[in-house]
Design goal:
The protein contains 13 helices and no strands. With 284 residues, it is mostly helical. It has a single domain, classed as MetI-like (MetI-like fold, Orthogonal Bundle), CATH 1.10.3720.10. The complex is composed of two ATP-binding proteins (CysA), two transmembrane proteins (CysT and CysW) and a solute-binding protein (CysP).
Length: 284
């Protein structure tokens, strides 16, 4: 008997090997992410505990936390609902001007945040196109209120949800929906049991991206917020104010609280997203 040996060719790699690629990745992330974050913590450590607590727990700062994170959560939730609908329409329907609408979704990415803030303020102020109707007819004031902050954060967060959900809908298997319909499922049942489980991980990802962007947003919010103490002051404004006063340790202390809260929130969302992926893969 003669043994036949088959030579297995090594997989072809366009980029260098694993060790070199991993080393470059770690070096780049350290240079771009870890070093700046470490500098924030090191500067904060120059404060005593009493000084740190005084910087991050004053009534105005606490009010800014509530507004910043609360508005970011509300804006993210709104974008999940309406951004999901926009993505659905762009993928599932053909209509005149579809490419124009698809391009408009990316406008908040390209538009400078200060320009967006000025534009939204002009639209929603008492004499603006929208504000004149909302305030004069409905008695709803948007500009220079927390509601204006939510509007600005919703504006800048919409593309994250749409562009995250859109590829998932494009790759979804229509045959599963047709099979559910052929078995007698209603449109609502088909969406709830077939479509929505497939969309859920991408919706959570879009929400996380929109929330993360909203918590640190400054340019588009600073004009429409009005910056009224205890009412419409956002946390990034306090960081800028501390820097202008050369209180670098106080600025980094507030930044550390923002960083820790955002990290915990994003970690929770990522864990929920992983659970949703697992649930979505199960056969029901």
């Amino acid at each position: 008997m003669s043994a036949t040996f088959t030579a297995t060719a090594a997989p072809y790699r366009v980029l260098p090997g694993f060790r070199l690629s991993l080393g470059f990745t770690v070096f780049y992330l350290t240079l771009i992410v870890l070093v700046p974050l470490s500098a924030v913590f090191l500067k904060t450590f120059t404060l005593s505990w009493d000084g740190f607590w005084a910087a991050v727990s004053s009534p105005r700062v606490l009010a800014s936390y509530r507004l910043t994170f609360g508005a970011a959560l509300v804006a993210g939730a709104l974008n999940v609902v309406f951004g999901g609908i926009v993505a659905w329409v762009l993928v599932r329907y053909d209509f005149p001007g579809k490419r124009l609408v698809d391009a408009l979704v990316d406008l908040p990415f390209a538009l400078p945040t200060a320009v967006a803030g000025i534009t939204l303020t002009a639209l929603y102020s008492a004499n603006g196109w929208f504000g004149r109707v909302l305030e004069g007819v409905l008695g709803l004031k948007v500009a220079f209120t927390p509601l204006g902050v939510v509007v600005a954060l919703t504006f800048i967060g919409l593309p994250f949800v749409v562009r995250t959900v859109q590829p998932v809908l494009e790759e979804a298997e229509r045959e599963l929906e047709e099979a559910a319909a052929s078995l007698g499922a209603t449109a609502l049942q088909t969406f709830g049991r077939v479509v929505f489980p497939a969309m859920l991980p991408s919706l959570l990802t879009g929400f996380a991206l929109a929330f993360a962007r909203a918590t640190g947003e400054y340019g588009s919010v600073i004009f429409i917020a009005g910056n009224m103490p205890m009412v419409s002051e956002i946390t990034p404004l306090f960081i800028i104010t501390k820097l202008e006063q050369y209180d670098y340790a106080g600025a980094t202390a507030i930044a550390v609280v923002m960083l820790a809260a955002s990290f915990l929130m994003l970690l929770s969302i990522n864990l929920l997203q992983a659970w949703a992926r697992g649930e979505g893969g199960k056969v029901r």
